Amino acid sequence: MKKLTLWMMALAVLLGSTLQAQDIRGNWQGTLQQGPQKMRIVVKIALDNDKLQAVLYTVDLSSTPVGGSITRDGSTVKMTIPAENGKFEGKLSADGNSITGTMTLGAPVPFNLTRATPETAWTIPEPPPPPRKMAANVDPAFEVATIKPSDPDGPQGMVIRLQGTEYVTKNTPLHALIVLGYWVHPKQLIGEPAWAASDKFDVTGKPDAPGEPSVDQMRIMVQKLLADRFQLTFHHEKREMPVYAITIAKSGAKLTKSQADPNSIPTTVFGASRQGTTFIVRNATLATAAAVLQGRLDKPIVDQTGLSDKYDFILTFTPDTAQAVDNPDAAPDVFGAFQQQLGLKLESTRAPADVMVIDKVEKPSAN
């Protein structure tokens, strides 16, 4: 009996050593089923700065790959996919050729991966061709721009979007156009007339140069529109004021660099889930994300991290903690979410901030 016990212990040690020796770098593939929809997914695992990183490709869709990070502890493999607010956890087989696990993209579903070989590997589709970009040295303006009062009896939701090269807004007050054009928090705006927040306009504009404008070029066009059609003039001042400052937490930033074309337009979208508000950020710097997020907060946000790369992440937070009392799945408030999910700190403080003092503005001129 003693010999048998010793033999079993030796076997366990041998199996453990073999499992640890398995290298999970390489290409893995599996089929994810969410309801009636099946998606073939390839996961490329590689080392980046001595850390395992993953890139996920959806085989049957010509879509932009999504980055993630991976950790391994013995046979347990865990992966996070910030851009999709997703996570995976599975068990590596003894031979190192399969991982049996669960993918969570909302509701958890079974998702098993098999190590790809040259004979079994699925073909990864080419990403969609990027739209033709406006030349970086172009200083664009709207070649044609139409501004008209919004229909008070029509849909009331505010819309601001870029359709190809056409800039379109619906039910948009001047206040929002200034915030968009100059990325300022409402508390950084001084001297607005009352109608700037109450009167709403529909704007359609086409740039005077070919190609899709960058975010900065789009802002330049909006700034010129404000000066030309609203006669906006202003000056800047520095004033110390209450702000939220973003810094890196002691644990270190938990951010995944975007795999998208760095010259493509960043995407920031707010959504809702049972957990709370979701802030989806793709291919954007922290400064860009802060400029968008601050519109949901009561103070301007100042990025003090020193990080300048573009990232993909989803921040899930509860805007009103009182509403989370009866919800066991509720996300933390925005401050806790920053630290837990991004490895960053968002703290209230006072700091010098730029303010925009309006000297003159008029209702828009006729088309």
Tell me what the structure shows.
Helix content is 18%, strand content 43%. By secondary structure, the protein is an alpha+beta fold. The protein has 3 domains: 22-115, Beta Barrel (Lipocalin), CATH 2.40.128; 142-236 and 355-360, no CATH class; 240-353, no CATH class. The strands form 4 sheets. The chain has an 8-stranded antiparallel β-barrel with strand order 1-2-3-4-5-6-7-8. The model is unreliable at 1-21 (pLDDT under 50). The protein starts with a helix and ends in a 7-residue tail after the last strand. The chain is globular and about 70 Å long.
Could you outline the blueprint of secondary structure elements for this entry?
Layout: H1 2-21, E1 26-34, E2 37-48, E3 51-58, E4 66-73, E5 76-81, E6 86-92, E7 98-105, E8 107-115, E9 142-149, E10 159-163, E11 166-173, H2 174-182, E12 189-190, H3 195-198, E13 200-207, H4 215-229, E14 233-248, E15 256-257, E16 267-273, E17 276-284, H5 286-293, E18 301-303, E19 311-317, H6 334-342, E20 344-360
Helix pairs in contact: 2-4
